[in-house]
What does this fold into?
Amino acid sequence: MKTIYLDYGATSPVREEALHAMMPYFQLEYGNPGSIHDLGQRSSDAIQHARTQIAQAIGATPREIVFTSSGTEANNLAIIGGAKKRKHLGNHIITSSIEHPAVLEACRYLEREGFHVTYLPVDSYGQVEVKDVANAITEKTILVTIMSANNEVGTIQPIAEIGQLLQDSSILFHTDAVQYIGKVPCSVANLGVDLLSIGSHKLYGPKGIGALYIRKGVRIEPLFHGGGQEREIRPSTLNTPAIVGFGVATTLAVQEIQQESERLTALREYAWSRIHQEVKDVDLNGHPTDRLSNNINLSFHRVEGQAILLELNRQQIYVSSGSACSAGKHRPSHVLRAMGRSDEVAHQSMRITLGKETTKEDIDIMIHHLSQVLTYLRSLFI
Ligand SMILES: Cc1ncc(COP(=O)(O)O)c(C=O)c1O
It folds into this structure.
């Protein structure tokens, strides 16, 4: 039986070129990049090269990139570190109600520390309205954090417009771009952001590595205290192999954006039109066009998404219900709830995310089994 992986929104395999580039740094070039001998300096050079690759991918300079252990840590560093540094200017933060838990929980932590957070609503497509951001600003607002693209429904947010709104203010603007980088061309200058989080494992790099873009001149408090690495913003010995793989994967993902997003958009549209025609009572969640090229989020009437997932799993077809990070917990998706869906509809959702290895044949096989699974599951409730 062929394995069909359709959960690239959760994670992706490390691509060959990245793995190849990483290998020497496990055993041969194992020097601590902080050591001044040649072995250490070769690691340091490799890290600098990766830093340049990541900076170039988003139109930044290498000094504006700080490596972290993950997208989660980059979000925490931006939000908690940014808010704490600006506490003397105010205590109000604006975010949206559809953010990843790595943002929402960082905001909840800050609420416990005395900050006040506004969670903006979204429309039925899961999009934040720029006028709602404008209306929420008070003289105490110090930080706005809105994700670039949603991990569950794939909706892309109007980041450049929000950036323009905040352009001449002293409010810090952060975006969680973990799902966005490598899928949509990105320039930090065009987006108008001060802080931007990136993760490696969604773009065919290794897990456990991420980065935070910090615009030149912006100051934030470190979360950790230790040696002076990463200009004291994020101390700890750097993970050289992971950083090298992250750099290569990011460069290649960005180089391939045009071609791959056209291919995936065509596959996505093909999949949705077939599902729409062949499977009754199904709705597409998220924006029809302002969405990630690889994301299809569906709600199937009268059937739990989790039940579909488990039946497809028996055929070695791997999808997700809601976001992978909340899978296992039986709470309805907070994203779909914020988009105005009932708890029942939110429980009926399933996320298919396409990637580099996905073919039209995979989609055909998936739809064949999906139709059978739905017929079977729906028959149980008649
Ligand atoms: C939008 C978004 N932000 C943050 C994260 C967390 O990234 P990491 O797994 O690198 O901690 C994820 C991962 O699912 C994500 O999709």
